[in-house]
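Colleagues,

For the teaching module next term, I've prepared a clean inverse folding example: a structure given as tokens, and then the sequence designed for it. I'd like students to try predicting residues themselves before seeing the answer, so please don't circulate the second half yet.
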């Protein structure tokens, strides 16, 4: 929709002041953008930007598979206590499948490998979407920020930008995004290889690329994320998965892993500690 900040039938200086005030207000609104190729100054273009703002709760700790096509590693045991990933999933390169198999055998034997959350380390993308707890989404015209309740971790998604030419590998990589209709599309690259891809410890390398598509479903009661994962060094093909969040009004809490590292079965998680004096 295009409109002109015209005089609205007001006389003289009053019309100019009214038009100027309206222009300032429009520029300040995040859903509007001044068109660079308009026929005259003051021309602006209305944009429909979907809102994902609010607090959302993740209740699952494993990805849901797509209706068709290559999907994520799934648990071969019906249990939320024992995690034995399907190492025969054809998305896995042989060396990747071997790590999934070893992790499953150890977990089944009671020697379960610790997850990043248990070790108070970043979970990385896409595995961060398998953390129980709340997330909060904030939107501005330049950036979408996702805050995670656990350890107060944050991700920054830069809108309408390109990835820098030189990226230092990091836990959460570098994310850029744009809107497509009612969806927020996020592309992330620049990962290190220090995080698993999922709950089964499936590894990835620095060539990992993750595309997330966020959209509101169930009449604003749920947030669905469609995830596409690509890494030719660890997977035979790109694969897709889903993660769903529900809207919540629960209070945002402060959860610091390093101060709450007790296991339900007694004992402590082996959280790395710096014993070097800082004075």
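(Answer key — instructors only)
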């Amino acid at each position: 929709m295009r409109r002109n900040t015209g005089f609205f039938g007001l006389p003289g200086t009053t019309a100019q002041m009214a038009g100027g005030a309206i222009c300032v207000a429009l520029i300040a609104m995040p859903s509007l953008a001044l068109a660079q190729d308009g026929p005259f100054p003051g021309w602006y273009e209305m944009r429909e930007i979907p809102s994902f703002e609010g607090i959302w709760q993740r209740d699952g700790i494993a990805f849901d598979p797509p209706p068709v096509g290559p999907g994520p590693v799934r648990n071969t045991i019906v249990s939320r206590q024992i995690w034995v990933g399907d190492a025969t999933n054809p998305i896995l390169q042989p060396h990747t499948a071997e790590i999934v198999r070893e992790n499953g055998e150890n977990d089944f034997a009671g020697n379960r490998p610790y997850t990043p959350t248990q070790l108070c380390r970043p979970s990385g993308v896409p595995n961060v979407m398998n953390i129980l707890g709340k997330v909060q989404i904030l939107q501005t015209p330049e950036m979408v920020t996702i805050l995670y309740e656990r350890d107060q971790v944050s991700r920054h998604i830069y809108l309408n930008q390109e990835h820098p030419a030189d990226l230092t590998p990091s836990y959460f990589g570098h994310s850029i995004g744009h809107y497509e209709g009612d969806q927020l599309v996020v592309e992330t690259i620049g990962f290190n290889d220090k995080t698993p891809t999922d709950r089964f410890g499936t590894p990835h390398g620095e060539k990992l690329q993750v595309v997330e598509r966020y959209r509101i479903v169930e009449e604003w009661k749920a947030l669905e994320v469609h995830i596409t994962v690509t890494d030719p060094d660890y997977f035979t093909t790109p694969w897709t998965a889903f993660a769903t969040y529900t809207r919540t009004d629960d209070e945002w809490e402060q959860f610091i892993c390093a101060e709450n590292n007790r296991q339900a079965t007694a004992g402590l998680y082996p959280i790395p500690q710096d014993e070097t004096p800082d004075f």
